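Annex B. Sample input.
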Amino acid sequence: MRLSNKSFLKKIPRYAILAFLLLLADIMVLPFVWMLSASFKMQRDVMAIPIKWIPSYFYPDNYIRVLHLGGSSAKDYHFFLAYWNSILLAVVNTVTTMLTAAMAGYAFAKIKFWGSKVIFVIYLAQMMIPPQVTLIPRFVMFAELGMTKSHWPLVLSKLVAISAVFLMRQAYSIVPDELRESARIDGAGEYRTWWQIMLPMVKPTLGACATVAFLDSWNNYLDPLVFLSNWRLHTLPIALNQFVSEEATQYGLVMAACCLTVIPVFAVFLAGQKFFIKGLTVGAVKG
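Annex B, continued. Sample output.
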C-alpha cells in the first residue's frame, strides 16, 4: 500500500500538468465553438444569457445570406468569387514556393559552388527585414510593370520563401551524402538524383513548409489590400473585412462568414499536422 501511495504521489505533477493543458485547450476552443453555434442562430438568440451552446433549432439563413444564395435580396459580398481567388492563390503560391524551396535547399545543402555560403547568409539576413518595409518599393515596381490589375504581384511576392528554403536546406543536410554519391555512380544526373532520391527523404519537412505556405497565403490581408484595386480580384480576408464593416451588428451573419473563412484553415492544418511537427523537428537537427 505504501508503494502504491508513493507511485500515486509521483504522478500528481503529471496529472496537474495534464489538467492545466486541458484548461488551456478549453479556453482556446470555446471561442470557436461559440462562433459555430452563433452562426446557426437568429439575431435575437446570439447574445442570450446563459449561452445556449447547442441551438434548439437549425437556422441556415445566415449562410444563405452570406453566400447570396436563393435569390436573396441582401447585398452580394461576392464570397464565392473571393473563395475562388483565395483558393487559387493559395494553391499556386504553395506549389511554387515548395518547388523553389525544395530546389534551392538542395543546392545549398549538397551542391558545392562558389559563394554558396555567402549567398545563404544573405538569404538569412533578408529574414530580419519586415515585409512591410518593402511594401512600397514592391508596389512601385509592380505598378511600373502594369501588374496591379492582376494576381501576379501576390504570386511573384511569394515565389521564394526564405524560411522554407532554410528549413529545406536543414532537412537535406542530415540526409547522408552516400545516397547522392550512389545515385551518381549509377548514372543518375543531378536533377534525377534530387527528384527520385533526395526529395522523398525530406517529405515531412516539405509537408510542414507546404502547410505554412498555404496558411500564409490564405490569411494574407495586407498585400491584396495594397496591390488589388479591382474587386473581382479580392481575396477572402478583404471580402470578410468589408462584410464585417457593414454588418457589424448582425452577429449571426458575421459568425457565419467567419466560419466559412476558417473551414479551409482547419482542413489544411488537420491534414498536415502530422508533417508539421515532425518536419520542423527533423529540419532543426543539424545546423
